[in-house]
Amino acid sequence: MIGRSMLAYIPVNLANIVVSFGTVVILTRLLSAAEFGRYAVAIITMQFAHMAIFTWIEAAMARFQARAEKEGDVAHHLKTLYSLGAGMCLFASLFFAVFYYFIPLTGPMKTVIGFALASTCIQVFFNIGMEAHRASHRIKRYSLSFSFQTLLSFSLGIILILTTPLREIAPFIGIMIGVSFVLIFDLLFMLPKMKGGKFSRVKTKDYAAYALPISLSLLLSYALNSADVYLIAGYMGEASAGEYNAGYNLANRSLEIIFVWLAMAVTPLAVSAFEQDGAENSKSIMRDYGATLLLIALPAATGIALVAKDAGFIMGESVRDNAVTVMPLIAFAGVLNGFINYYVQRAFMLSGATKSFAWVMLPPFIMNIGLNLWLIPLYGLMGAVYATVAAYSLGAVLSMIIARRHYPLPLPIKALGQISVACGLMSISVLTMPWPEAWPDAVRLILKAGWGAFVYGFACWVMNIANCRNLAQLLRTKFSPTRNNDSAGDIKGANDIEGAVYE
Fold first, then answer.
1. pTM score, two decimals?
2. Helix H segments across 237-353?
3. What's the Cα-to-Cα distance from 414 to each of 330, 402, 405, rounded to whole Å?
4. In the list 7, 197, 379, 481, which could disulfide-bond 76, CB 3.0-4.6 Å?
């Protein structure tokens, strides 16, 4: 079930990969370290603003769309959420205008933050539609719309950097144009579904009670992820913030793509199973999900740590030297972050105990800020890294303990042990291999990654970790030019919910 849904989201993740790595590869070359630092601060500010004001609406769509379809209440459901989006957009525009006027900044930093905040008001309507498509298992529509918008926005931003004096402002103008273009076509599809629907205050209260705590918890989690950039900029300057963000993005974003990919595939399945059959059926999905997350993410983090120095050529020279030093530990912090936000958080989501998750993230957030204030003056960029790892470790332990009080969340301990052994074998094989220093970094990176992946894959196959042999069989069947009737029949009848994904 999970394997097929994962395959359906490959186009979205290819687009995310292009943009994520393109941001590091291209922007760190086109922009100076200070310009990239201002861009990083602006993109983080945009995300903070979006989570604080809009994310609760998107979370409500993701959680309640399946219920609305089950109860035949889709028109009222959609009309309520889109109306809330419009109202919050108006509020945000006024709030951002006041904030922009009084913000104690001048020059390029203030300007780029203004454009970043403006872009998030447009994104909310696009995101509401995308969450509706995912929750309704309209994967092809979601995949095409999201992928095209992502690539269009990024491409326009690059073109504007090259052809105008906009510099770090250009990517945000690209976002506004790209989102607006795709949004027109998405609204043409969504508006008829709202026909006859009315705004519901009762639904608004239910949605807010469920989703506002999620928004708060995501805000705290993102603060764990990114607030240190503000402190680095304050203590060490915009250029240092750009260096840290480049290394952080290359390591953490690589892992986040994996987590987002799997979450896209599994969350709608888990919600549908929970709504239709209760906790027990969703528990079996979550068990496979947790093992699959570790199966893919933990070796990816290990690989990033092993090739961090060789991967430095990916980044521009203005940020490269310091950026590669933060990557190994940030990679493992990224695994903890992803496991909290894309696995453990689903237990709070399914059980409805979203307020508890918000409180769980508060101690790690406070710890992270305190450690950053203490360690950055002592250790520079690595001080921020140490603070991040410590805070995520605390967050992982607390969230798992509290989550299991509300939902029977499976802990993939056996899979973790087996995967750790396989990652250890991979590390030993890469570190003991005599890689000539005279070889170009790109060649060493490719060979190390390929050799490590082979050793890890072989170890997983021997131990059949997380039933990986079944996933390999599914991949062969999916991409085989000739499929026999038995295989096709097996896949077609796998599961009613899974079949709905492809309708």
1. 0.77
2. 238-248, 254-277, 279-307, 320-339, 345-351
3. 25, 21, 21
4. 197
Rounded to whole angstroms, the Cα distance separating 142 from 159 reads 26
CB 33 within 8 A of CB 319: yes
Within 1-73, residue ranges assigned H as helices are 2-8, 10-22, 28-30, 33-53, 55-71
What confidence score (pLDDT) does residue 225 get?
A: 81
Q: Using an 8 Å Cβ cutoff, are 238 and 34 in contact? A: yes
* Residue 481 neighbours by CB under 8 Å, 6+ apart: none
Q: How far apart are CA 243 and CA 398, in angstroms?
A: 31
The residues spanned by each domain of the chain are 2-484+488-501
Predicted local confidence at residue 42, as pLDDT:
93
CA–CA distance, 406 with 283 (Å, rounded to integer): 13
- Kindly calculate the radius of gyration of the chain based on its CA atoms and give it in whole angstroms: 23
Residues 342 and 349: beta-carbon distance below 8 Å: no
As a residue count, the chain comes to 503
Query: What's the confidence (pLDDT) of residue 299?
Result: 95
Q: What is the mean pLDDT of each run of 10 residues along the chain (503 residues)?
A: 64 84 89 91 93 94 89 94 96 92 84 93 94 89 94 96 95 97 96 94 94 87 86 91 90 85 79 75 84 92 93 87 92 93 88 85 93 95 95 94 91 93 96 90 93 95 85 63 47 37 31
Task: Give the per-residue SS3 of 230-260.
Answer: HHHHHHHCHHHHHHHHHHHHHHHHHHHHHHH
- Using left for φ > 0, alpha for ψ between -120 and 50, and beta otherwise, residue 242 falls in alpha
Both tokens of 246, joined, read 């480049």
